[in-house]
Design brief:
Length: about 375
């Protein structure tokens, strides 16, 4: 296992513009985290300040066309016409490239400008493969690509944007190079401001933990079956987890994990049972889809794609909801080959209910009268 200190400037730039366009500002997130985790205020504040400074610097230095920013980074609408499916025109164009390391932005975009139409269809197919129950072939003719897009459970407006992305791929790559390139250069030039944070990122809190136990303590996923694991920090994705599971489990490809630098802090359990931690668990259940998904995994481990199919949402949305429940301690996840399975942590759910009884009714769960 290799825990890297190197950040990916393209991924950071994508996350920056995503936050800027979709309204999840660093400053607002910092305030929410500090309020939600008062016992770790100093830790979170000291780690968030350099991120906030970089966010402010990027916003001051970069003055792109707001309409074009919205076009590229506004998230697509989901099946209900309201819920985002967690992706945008920029993210599907750069879906595969975002997780590769390039020395310069020019090198990246020059390579992308040489893709053939067939390669473009294949990359768009890969980017949207998780959003449909129909798994398309790796190589699609133009007609098959249209059929595949029609099979995706999206509103017509979203399907039109997919078609449009294919038709104007080269022009959009060129335009994105002018938007993302300067942001990447700023991030690279100010890399040293994160040295202390990145040094802490690669060090377990407990010296007795090996690397696998350390990672499991953060993401609640057993990855011991993988001999080749690469872990990278994300700065702008400071409270996110992304697993890139290899297509084959023969060890030829690594399991790659992009881990927000705050996740280690957010996964630390409070020693005492306090009202703040109980509130966090209650908030994690304050979403209908999330509660329904928790009920769906109460009896047996459930494959993430099965949840995606059952609730007609993207895999990205499933992992977003599951991550919230994992952080709250109500769900566990395991890897089996190249699949992620989720299951309710029944012990912690019982503890959560018992704590509610203690706070609201001043009694233990087993002492509640049947006619109450």
């Amino acid at each position: 296992m290799l825990i890297n200190k190197k950040i990916n400037p393209l991924l950071e730039a994508l996350q920056y513009f995503n936050r800027r366009v979709n309204g999840t500002s660093v400053s607002d997130t910092m305030l929410r985290l500090e309020s939600a985790y008062p016992e770790r205020f100093q830790e979170i504040h000291s780690m968030m300040v350099p991120i906030l400074e970089l966010d402010n610097l990027l916003s001051a230095e970069l003055v792109p066309d707001i309409d074009r920013l919205n076009f590229f980074f506004k998230q697509f609408e989901g099946i209900n016409g309201a819920d985002s499916i967690g992706t945008s025109t920029a993210s599907i164009i750069l879906f595969e490239e975002a997780y590769k390391n390039f020395d310069t932005a020019d090198e990246l975009f020059e390579r992308m400008s040489r893709f053939s139409p067939a390669e473009i269809r294949s990359k768009l197919r890969t980017a949207f493969g998780n959003y449909t129950t129909v798994q398309p072939k790796a190589e699609l003719s133009l007609e098959e690509f249209w059929d595949f897009t029609e099979s995706c459970p999206f509103p017509d407006e979203t399907k039109w944007r997919i078609f449009d992305t294919y038709r104007h791929y080269y022009e959009y790559v060129s335009e994105l190079s002018h938007i993302l390139g300067p942001a990447m250069e700023i991030i690279i030039d100010h890399y040293d401001r994160f040295n202390d944070i990145l040094d802490g990122f690669v060090e377990p809190n407990d010296g007795s933990l090996d690397n696998y136990e350390y990672v499991r303590s953060i993401i609640s996923v057993d990855i011991t079956a993988y001999e080749n694991v690469l872990i990278y920090p994300t700065i702008m994705g400071f409270n996110s987890i992304l697993l890139l599971i290899p297509d084959y489990d023969d060890g030829s490809e690594p399991l790659i994990i992009y881990l927000g630098i705050l996740m280690k802090n957010l996964r630390q359990e409070s020693v005492s049972i306090d009202i703040e931690s109980l509130i966090r668990q209650i908030k994690s259940l304050g979403d209908q889809s999330r509660l329904e998904m928790l009920c769906s995994v109460k009896d047996k481990p459930t494959y993430g794609q099965d949840l995606s199919n059952k609730f007609s949402v993207s895999s990205t949305t499933v992992y977003h909801h599951m991550n919230k429940l994992i952080v709250a301690g109500l769900v566990d996840s395991t890897l089996d080959g190249n699949k992620v399975y989720f299951t309710m942590n029944r012990t912690n759910v019982v503890t959560f209910i018992s704590r509610l009884c203690a706070v609201l009714l001043d009694c233990d769960i087993k002492d509640i009268p049947p006619n109450l």
